[in-house]
Amino acid sequence: MKNRRDNEKVLYFILAIITIAYIGVLCYANIALSVPEWLGYIQTYGGIVIALAYAAINFFGSPLKTVFFILLVLATVLLILSIVIPDVFRGIFGIKA
Question: pTM for the whole thing?
Answer without folding.
Answer: 0.59
